Amino acid sequence: MARLLPTILLACALVLGLRSLAFVTPPASPGLRGATAVDQEQTLAPSASASAALGGAVVGLVASAPAAHAAMLFDEIIPYAGATSFCIMWGIVLGFVLLRLQEAFPE
Predict the structure, then answer these.
(1) What is the DSSP string of the chain?
(2) pLDDT, tens digit, for every residue of 4-60?
(3) pTM of the predicted model, to two decimals?
(4) What pLDDT is recorded for position 24?
């Protein structure tokens, strides 16, 4: 199911995107027949731009990549924690070895 989810989301985004491409503005109402093209464009533009903005937001949210930090625990945190812990423990061992050597050969 986890492998199928991105495909389903991409298909939904594609359907929503194609639906917004098929949008056709309705014919001008009788009250707008005498208006200029600029007036008509200004009255119809907010709905078209809102639809485009909503479509862009949906596609951006639905088809986004998985989080970059999802595999960070096993790829970075655990190996670095292991290496750091090993270095600290090895330093403690070497410290005790040097301490015993100092006791074995006093000046």
Answers:
(1) -TTHHHHHHHHHHHHHHHHHHT--PPPPPGGGTTS-HHHHHHHHHHHHHHHHHHHHHHHHHHTPPPPTTTTHIIIIIHHHHHHHHHHHHHHHHHHHHHHHHHHHS--
(2) 777 887 787 777 676 666 555 656 565 555 555 555 455 544 556 777 777 777 777
(3) 0.37
(4) 58
Closest CA to 48 of 84, 8, 21, 77: 21
Contacts of 7 (CB under 8 A, 6+ apart): none
- Report d(CA 50, CA 70) in Å as an integer: 33
What does the alpha-carbon distance between residue 82 and residue 73 come to, in Å, rounded to a whole number? 12
Tokens of 67: 């989080």
- Alpha-carbon Rg for the chain, nearest whole angstrom, is 33
